[in-house]
Amino acid sequence: MFKLEKIFQKDDNLYINISILLKSSLVFLLIYIFSILEFNSIYDLFNFDIYKKSKYLSISIYFPIFYFLFSFIFRTTKKRYVVHFFSFLLNDIIPFIITIPFTLYIFFILKINYEMDISNVYLLVFIIFSLFFIRKIFDIYYINLMNNNLIQRNVMLVGSIESIQKILRTKEDKVNIYKCCLINSNDKKALENARINLKIPVFTDKSDMRVILEYHELGQIWILDDEEKNLVNYHLDLVIKFSVDIIIVSLKSNIKINSKLLYDNLINNKYTYTNYQTSQFYGSSLFIKLFLDKILSIIFLIILTPIILLITILIYIEDGFPLFFLQESAGWDGRRFNVYKLRVYKKILNRQSESKKNEKKMLKIGKIIRKLRFEESPQLLNILKGDMSIVGPRPQFVKDYLRYAQVYKHFLKRNKTFPGLTGWAQINGYRGKKPSNENMKKRMEHDVWYLNNWSNRLDFYIILKTFFTIFTRPKR
To answer: Checking phi first, is residue 111 left (phi over 0); if not, alpha (psi -120 to 50) or beta?
Structure first.
């Protein structure tokens, strides 16, 4: 699943945080259930008066909150989720044990009366077994995500044959999937041996990098630094213009494995790495962005569906089917998808030609659609499908995408996120069809600024500004 891959691109913090939140909520639920079933039957589970009058009311409020806080304090420094019983003891049980005396101490400070008896022991045992059970569920689900290649990073290794062999010989890494490699060699025999020994697709600096990135759906490129600085810079020049994340991995032999380097700064517990150029779109922030995309697209579709239906009926009456116009566009990492638009031209028109002389061939309803700037509204379906986002660089059709990529060195960096229905360039007036090269350059610069400064707060600002800008500011 492409979106999960991006959310987990750098770490598993979102998964770990959700697990902590759900386990803390479970603790509250378990105390609530215990307070009902201690002296009543299962049929009274929804009798909240019993719960309110029970002695467990106070502890059901304070205990889950403190457990939640201590779980964050004692969570592992590793940024990847760990499936191990020791991790359960460290991250689940230790916070639980510390929460018990801390909660009682707070009760003492606040003078909250709480009756201590054997039932509290039963409650604690009940919670511990339940925590172990929910932990196993999270472990099984995470293993399933890994086994189905849903959250891994698809990696291209770039370097000498020897440095690539070093990486491939290390302990198997289920997070990083080495899809292919690129080596700097014109020796046909060496290339043939590399293809046999490395057992992954081998490319050279003469290969078409854009096609490789799209075909293998790469999420990261690792430049392997084996102390040949000139070679590292050469490889960087080959890939720097593309939207994929770039990591420099140091293979220096003098790195001490037992040093104070954090685990998440190591590759396979052995080689250090540096994020040379990585996307800002990952983790909890990206999850929130995707969640808001779904909510807002549903809301806007509910509001606009009657208008879209009316317009499609008018299109059908005037010129029959098709009602929508589809054109292939480049999305995140250059992955292709079809952009939906309302059809505004007659069927006899070659859509690729949009000069003013073709205005006579525009549908009557098409002129109204274009004037109201309603042509793009079906792209809410693209957002709902996950091809696009509410906010991001506007999608470029493949033909234009390839042309501009040859003109502007950093144009492909626009594909470091989902294309958007609106964006930073659009609210600054850089919108409209067939821009001049200079205006396209300005759009690209605004898009790159957005990518480097992205936050959900910025998205919210762009959405609000769009409503004021689209009907007032002239297009450039």
So the answer is: left
Domain ranges of the chain: 2-147, 153-277, 284-469
Range list of β-strands (E), 396-466? 396-397, 420-422
Number of helices (H) and strands (E) in the chain: give both, helices first.
18, 12
d(CA 369, CA 311): 8
This prediction has a pTM of 0.81
CA distances from 96 to 74, 131, 316 (A): 10, 10, 65
CA distance 458 to 454: 6
Q: Which residues contact 402 (CB under 8 A, 6 or more apart)?
A: none
Q: What DSSP line would sit under 119-136, residue for residue?
A: HHHHHHHHHHHHHHHHHH
Encode pLDDT of 292-315 as tens digits. Answer: 999 999 999 999 999 999 999 999
Where b means 16+ CB within 10 Å and e means fewer, 251-262 reads beeeeeeeeeee
Task: Indicate the DSSP class of residue 345.
Answer: B
Bridge partner residues of 345 (DSSP) = 362
Q: Give dist(CA 421, CA 324) in Å, integer.
A: 17
The neighbour count for residue 209, using CB atoms within 10 Å, is 19
Tens-digit pLDDT profile for residues 206-243: 888 888 888 888 888 999 887 666 778 888 888 888 88
Q: How many residues does the structure list for the chain?
A: 476
Q: What is the rounded CA–CA span in Å between residue 85 and residue 148?
A: 23
CATH topology of domain 153-277: Rossmann fold (3.40.50)
User: The tokens 């954090």 sit on which residue?
Assistant: 262
H or E segment and range at residue 154? strand 153-158
Task: Identify the CA nearest to 346 among candidates 322, 369, 326.
Answer: 322
Q: 432 falls in which pLDDT band (50, 70, 90)?
A: low
User: Roughly how many angstroms between the first and final C-alpha of the chain, as a whole number?
Assistant: 37
Q: What gap in Å lies between CA 361 and CA 372, rounded to an integer? A: 18
Output the six-digit token pair for 239.
Answer: 């890939």
The answer to whether the beta carbons of residues 223 and 267 sit under 8 Å apart is no
Distance separating alpha carbons of residues 437 and 421, to the nearest angstrom? 22
Using an 8 Å Cβ cutoff, are 246 and 276 in contact?
yes
Backbone angles phi, psi at 139, to 5 degrees: -60, -45
CA dihedral 453, 455, 459, 460 (to 10 degrees): -130
Long-range Cβ pairs for the range 89-93 (8 Å, 24+): 92/23, 92/131, 92/132, 92/135, 93/128, 93/131
